[in-house]
Model the fold of this input.
Amino acid sequence: MLFKSSNRSEDYWISVSDLMAGLMVLFLFIAISYMVKTQNENEMYISIEQEYAIAQDAIYKALFEEFKDDLDSWDARIDKENLSFIFLSPDVLFETGKSTIQKKYMDILDDFFPRYISSLDQVIYPIEAIILNEESGDKELITVSRSAKDNISAIRIEGHANKDAPEKYFTPNQKFVYNMRLSSDRSQSVLTYVLNLDLSDQHSWVRDNVRAVGYSSSNPVYTDDIYDYSKSKRVEFRIVLNAQERLFELIQKNKEGKLNEINYLTNNDILKSQMLDKYREELRNTKEDLLVTRGLLSELDRKLVIAQKELATTEEKINNLKSENVELERERKNINRTISILKKERDRIVIQNNELTLELDDVEENLNSLDREKSFYQQEIEMLKEEITEMNGLHSLMKKEVRQKIEDGSIPYNNDISQYDNKDVSTPAKIIGKIEPIYPKGAQESGVTGTVTVSFYIDRKGRAQDVRVTEGAGSILNRATIFAVQRANWIPATENGEAVIEIKTFSATFE
Done:
């Protein structure tokens, strides 16, 4: 019994030891499985974080290098953490309470957005990946280049507002809804505007990846812990990376304890998956390009039909133009004849103009001569005044002598002495100086000669009036004679001490 009992006891302990060994192996497998799972999770975190940090740095550097000289003038800044390009001047962007883009902001967008998309298209950054060599079974560390645009999930045009609203919206909910509608309309206006800009071959990518979002007043800006009403009103162009979204999903699933639902591939599978996604993207783009090409071909066929119709219309117009050309040629000949006539008339006018110029020179010479004669006449008038004064003195003296002789008895007195006072002699008109017609240069150079006789009368003021040509020698010589007579000064004729009119004639010979 003891032996058996001993045997049973031994058998019992053997079974327990086997059981413990089995449990230890099971726990070991569990531990190894957990370690592998933890290692895979860590690899996912590290891989995604590394790519996010590299992509974030490369994109920020590219944007800053491109726009560093424009940030101050645009009142803009680039947020590296969020990869946001922020426009901070609300008065430049939109009018208060409106979503229509102002002219100055349109000018900024014209310059900014094409360069923004072009800069992102040129961002290439390296990442390291561990791949499994299928032939040797060894792991290899390689470096591959990735395009930033391949890692961009979306570009969000974000409209932000502060918590202010018109007076009719007085509850917080009403104000929030009003600002949500306003911020959404503003971001939509910006999206609509940039889609119509010249983006070269980037329109398709922009349509697929750029979104307009309104955030109302949910993301305010604080300056020194004080709510900043001005900076809270802004428009941002924010880049969202695929790696960023994957990190958010990992963190969320980890909080929910559902990390095992994430089926991200790592290392060699990640690289293969990326390449497959790239090929799929290229295939999708190729299909899109094919559809676009088919559409273009259809459009070209339609345009060809239109062009053929236009060609027929053009040929008809050409025939009409040929007919019009014949008519225009006839008109051109008529115009040339008219031009020839006008040239002859122009030459005639030039000759007349030259003659008038010569006459004008003669007139100027006459005026100069008149000035000289005026000075001479003024001197003679002064001399005549002196003579008249002297004659008046002599006349008074003679009257005194006559009276004295009458009183002395030398002259008989007949009580009618007034006959000596009133007795006067009639005198003819007398010219002051002389009449000297000027021989015009044009007449001299042309050899025009002749004698001109004019008739006129001297009025009571000593001026020649009603000068008429009684014998002429051409218009130029006639005018020269008339001018000479008209500018002469006369002492008018008198009768019994009164000035009277006297008729005169004058002849001038030019040779």
Q: What stands out?
A: The mean pLDDT is 77.
